[in-house]
Amino acid sequence: MTGTAKVPRLGLRPNLAQFGLLVAVNALVGGVLGQERSVLPLLAERTFGLTGYTFLLTYVLAFGVTKAATNYVAGTLSDRLGRKPVLLAGWLVAIPVPLLLIWAPSWGWVVAANVLLGVNQGLTWSTTVIMKIDLAGPARRGLAMGLNEAAGYAAVALTAVATGYLAARYGLRPAPFLLGAAYVALGLGLTAVFVRETHEHARLEAGGHTARADGRHDHLHAGLSSREVFVHTSLREPALSAASQAGMVNNLNDGLAMGLFPVLFVGAGLSIADMGVLVALYPAVWGAGQLVTGPLSDRWGRKHLITAGMLTQAAALAVIAVGGSFATWAVAAVVLGAGTAMVYPTLLAVVGDVAHPAWRARAVGVYRLWRDGGFAVGALVSGAVADLWGLRAAVWVVAALTAASGLVVAARLYETHPARRSS
What does the record say about its membrane topology (predicted)? Predict the structure, then answer.
């Protein structure tokens, strides 16, 4: 009762304990995702005998479509029911995932597990983003998103390394997925007992919300319907729509990395252990780099960091397409992670900058719908191209799409940071 009676305050310092807890919770969310990153492509080939790349990527497609749709639902439900119930529901959905992966007698069971994983990630990751934006207030959104995404993707990377080691030492099943089961149990317990509702923080910010000095968004008032929020975020509002397409292309890259990088690396003669290191390097740099790029976007602004990040990713993918050794691919993975770190938290900060607090959770849901739809698009595009012309051709196509996305950001996105708007 005492906690609910407190008057909410905005900012990282007055909410440090709860913010830190949510960082830890999102690390567990990332760990649940990371449990299959090194192992599942090999499981598809060696246990279930899948050879076509498009068929192999059905699990990425199932995950991406489900997560994208759940992101949208999570934003709407967070406004209607509150943040904590949605977060708790996400953890409950995750309980069967490692069990299905351990005991799957056919590839259909693996796809079903990834449908549930998509629901879990959509509900939990979206909600931790919304809750951190609620707590942080307008001044330090870049830092808040950097910490959130760094925790999640560092956990993805560390878990990818750990499961690669476990798979090499103990086999592809069950050892790697027991780690995922432990993450689910811990995340569910922390959320149920210690996480507190943050919706009141959003209401507090909405009460003191002021219009931009440059006149933008005067028409984007607090009373937008969910349909209007969808249209503004997807198409009409330049910053939100530019961020949505960049987010989609960014995760198109990640869909390629999840599904085809392990096969490319092992097919070139690398060991499973070396492949696990390469697969982990990209999200490791991505995760750690956001500790720098998130607060950097608060200092430098959003637009140029996003543009440079998309072009950096495109260059790294080109190197992966032509590379053939562990050292070359390691350098490219580091550069790819750095480019992604420049983009990922900054795009979320753009949504937080532009969206009114009254409908910000729904805008985050729409943005994440498009962003994580990139997993599905990446699976379809890269799988089809790989089947027709080979793995390296698929990487080249994704590199070209990424460069084009960076040019769209340069042309359409204006500066959204509160302290940088006048420039």
Answer: Multi-pass membrane protein
| Cβ atoms within 10 Å, residue 360 | 24
Domain of residue 141, CATH code? 1.20.1250.20
Residue holding tokens 């204006």? 414
| Residue 105 φ/ψ, nearest 5 degrees | -85, -15
- Of the candidates 396, 399, 366, which has an alpha carbon nearest to the alpha carbon of residue 250? 399
Contact, 345 vs 293, CB < 8 A?
A: yes
The tens digit of pLDDT for each residue in 172-204 reads 999 999 999 999 999 999 999 999 999 898 888
Number of domains forming the structure of the chain: 1
Residues 320-345: tens digit of each pLDDT: 999 988 999 999 999 999 999 999 89
